[in-house]
């Protein structure tokens, strides 16, 4: 008889604990929706200012994705691209790397992102080639 009362007390305690835990936990539908709405607005705001391009070194096939802004210069893209692709040895100058659009490697890019009409990555987005030409 004592064994049944101990089991029933343990079962009631477990049930009470699970109900308490469930009542203190945030509601699934309410908290997740609020977080997504806040995150979505921040992402939309950031997307207006920055966008993604691919930077590739065709000679070795190294490739990286990079978030850039319209005010960023091509020299800054070269510097970041060298670091992200692993070509940032101190004895090589940034000026030894040239930046080209993938469609036209005849003219190096200079100036800012806005000056070169770069588009966000997608089917017709911008891919840049970072080529070592001392």
Helix content: 40-55%
Radius of gyration: 28 Å
Shape: elongated
- List the helices and strands in order: HHEEHEE
Low-confidence stretches: none
Distance between the termini: 91 Å
How many separate helices?
Answer: 3
Rounded mean pLDDT score: 81
User: What oligomeric state best describes the polypeptide chains here?
Assistant: single chain
Main pleated sheet: 4 strands, mixed
Count the beta strands: 4
Please tell me about this protein's structure.
By secondary structure, the chain is of the alpha+beta class. It has three helices and four strands. Strand 1 and strand 2 (62-68) form a beta hairpin. The protein starts with a helix and ends with a strand.
Notable characteristics:
19% strand; 43% helix; 134 residues; alpha+beta; single chain; 4-stranded mixed sheet; 3 helices; elongated
Give a short summary of the structure:
This protein has 134 residues and is an alpha+beta fold.
Topology record:
Blueprint: H1 2-24, H2 28-49, E1 51-57, E2 62-68, H3 74-85, E3 97-101, E4 127-132
Parallel strand pairs: 1-4
Antiparallel strand pairs: 1-2, 3-4
